[in-house]
Amino acid sequence: MKNENHHEFKLIDSTFTPEEASSVLTTLINSKINYHRLDDFSNHIRFERDLTHSKKRITELEAALTSLKQFTAKAKESGSNMVVKSVVTIAIDPNV
């Protein structure tokens, strides 16, 4: 989907071994966790922004890591590869 206010692109669209899938997705999730820990903390210090959303997202992302480890272990045990697809949708916020 692409128009002047919305855009989508494929971030991930491939088949991986469980180890590769785990590496790619763990790196992505850890990057998001680090964003919430560092960038949002910095904004909190500089602009006194509330960290409630970031704390909630960190908890959700850590749960996703746990789930990912369990799921990739299941694929590894069965000798299967994993199909990973991720589409990112971005939009211009009309409320700004």
Fold blueprint:
Elements: E1 6-16, H1 18-47, H2 52-78, E2 82-91
Antiparallel strand pairs: 1-2
Helix pairs in contact: 1-2
Briefly summarize what is shown:
The chain is α+β, with helices and mostly antiparallel strands.
Counting structural domains, the number is: 1
Query: Element order, helices and strands?
Result: EHHE
Tell how many strands the DSSP assignment holds.
2
Q: State the major sheet.
A: 2 strands, antiparallel
Oligomer designation: single chain
The residue-averaged pLDDT reads 91
What sort of overall outline do the alpha carbons produce when their principal axes are compared?
A: flat
**Which structural class do you get from the secondary structure elements?**
alpha+beta
Total helical elements: 2
Strand percentage: 15-25%
| Poorly predicted spans | none
N/C terminus separation: 22 Å
Portion of residues in helices?
55-70%
Q: Widest sheet: strand order?
A: 1-2
What does this structure look like?
It is a single chain. With 96 residues, the chain is an alpha+beta fold. It has one domain. Helix content is 59%, strand content 22%. The chain has two helices and two strands; from the N terminus they run E-H-H-E. The protein has a two-stranded antiparallel ribbon. Helix 1 runs antiparallel to helix 2 (52-78). The chain is flat. The mean pLDDT is 91.
